[in-house]
Model the fold of this input.
Amino acid sequence: MANESDKPALKITLEDLERVSLNSSVAVAPSPATARERTKNYGNIASPEVAPVIEDQGKSRIFLQGWFYLGVAGMAGALLGWGICEPRFYDAGGHRWGNIFMLPLVVMLMCFGFGVAESLVERSLNKAVWRGLLSLALGFIGGFIFDWVANLIFQITVAIVSELGVHTVRNPAFWMARGVAWMVFGITGGIIYGLVDRFGKKVQYGILGGIIGAGLGGMVFDPIALATRAGGPSRAVGFALFGLATGVAMGIVESALKDRWLYVAAGPLAGKQFILYKPVTVIGSSQQSDIYLFKDSAVLPRHGSIELRGAQTFLHADGPLYVSGQPVKHRALQSGDLVQVGRYAFHFRERHRK
Done:
């Protein structure tokens, strides 16, 4: 069949191919595998920025556990109150100021310890000062009021066990009578512990923990006195255990009954948990933040917030925030999500509802 084109046919011979050479300035496209190896992801529209994976660093930090630092704070406050009043305490009774002020002062300084302990652990000096002053004021008033109430309850319970035939402090029924009366002091500590943070649930957990701890502390007070056979040392050990038991019980109850919380997986506070009580919890580098993130220039004074809305929990970002490695502005959190802020990382967790 005849060629319909008027143009002559183009012929390339082997000699022509041998004379062709590649120009070194022409770029050869790399293979897809090579391109992936050489490309670094700095974040762009096509490929969103991804946060680095952070390893959990907080499994062994016992001093960041609530039951630990509240127990230590309660014990330190009780011992300080005892130490101030003991030199002016008269074992035979009477109205020396040591006898009058010992229990109220022990309770007041325990409340002070509970009020400042968490702020000191979080390195928030401003909060510690404010909460400490408020705890002292409330503890001073509550100490005297609840001392009177506890004495009244003690007289009633002692009268009851006496009617049952108990007439000696060696009888465990008498120890239980003191334990019931001292639960009042635990209620004082729990109320003030929650009030300084203005959280209703924290008050409830504090009261329950305080009742358990103070009741146990009160019940061991007389056995310790019988074992040591000395007034001053027995009171020192008894009050120390009273403060320790109250703080430990408050921390355990608060942790056991929590609903939603953030567990710090990485950063200076790794191992601590922040229980979410407030409708809106602010996260940032300002000491006024509910979750204060220090020593990180990448964290803004108000970096984000967590909102509790019914059964749902929402994260709102004011600065760069990542959930499970992806940048977010607003996000409904699910239990197990990893939230990253600067060099800090948090696991969001919530109790499973039936």
Summary: The first strand starts at residue 260 and ends at 266. The helical segments are 14-18, 32-38, 66-85, 97-121, 125-163, 172-195, 200-228, 231-257. Residues 125-163 form the longest helix (39 residues). The CA atoms of residues 304 and 318 lie 5 Å apart.
